[in-house]
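Observation: inputs received (chain + 2'-deoxycytidine-5'-monophosphate).
Thought: call the complex predictor directly.
Action: predict_structure
Action Input:
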Amino acid sequence: MGEPIVIALDGTSASGKSTNAKLVAKALGYAYVDTGAMYRSLAWHCLEKGVALDNDKAIASLCRRWKTELRNDDGHIRLYVNGYFPEKEIRTAKTSAAVPAVAAVPGVRKWMKAKQRDCAQFGNLVMEGRDIGSNIFPETEYKFYLDASLDERAKRRAADGVDENLAERDKRDSQRAAAPLMIPLGARIINNSEMTAEETSAMIIDEVRERLEAAG
Ligand code: DC
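Observation:
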C-alpha cells in the first residue's frame, strides 16, 4: 500500500467544511478529521486550567504537557484529552470565543501540525481546517477551498442557532502571523453560496474519483 491519500478541505467559517468533509469521507470510505475541534479542545483545556488567554507562553507550555491520544471512533478521528473527548464543551460560546487566541500561538500550531500529520496512521483522510493544504499536508494533490458569501454564511450559522461575528472571525483567522487562513496553492476553489451540500460534496467526490482513476 502506498502513502495514505489526504483530501485537504480549507475555507472560511460556515462555508460548509464540516458537512461536506463528512459527506466526502463517507462516500469514499476515508476517515474524517475536524482540526478545528483540536484547537477547540485546547482552548477548553486552557479555560479548565485557568490559563490566561493572553499568555502565549503558558498556552504553549500547557499544549506541550497535556495528555492526549488520537482515536478512530467509527471513521471520525478524535483527540481525546485525559481519555475524554469534550464533544459538548468545545461548542460552547465561551470556548468558541477563546479559540482564536489559542490558535494564534506558534508553539500550538507546531504541536498541532505534528498531531494532525499523525492522523495519517489511520489511512486515507478527509481533513478540514484553515491551513491543511497550505501547511499541514502541502504535498497533497487533493486540495479544496470552500467559500460562500458573508450573507449566506451568516444565515447558515443563524440556522444552527449560533450568533457570531463571522467577518471578525475571518479577519482574525486570515491576519494572524502563524499559519493564517489562505487559499492553498493549487486548490480548487468552490463558492457554494448557491449550492446545496449534496452538490458541493458531489463536485469534490467526482473530481477526486476522476483523478484517482487517471492516476491508475
Ligand atoms: O472550524 P472551527 O470553527 O471549529 O475552528 C475553530 C477555530 O480554530 C477558528 O478560530 C479557526 C481555528 N482553526 C485554525 O486556526 N486552524 C485550523 N486548521 C482549524 C481551525
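Thought: report the result.
Final Answer: Residues 1-30+123-216 form a domain with the Rossmann fold fold (CATH 3.40.50.300). The first strand starts at residue 6 and ends at 11.
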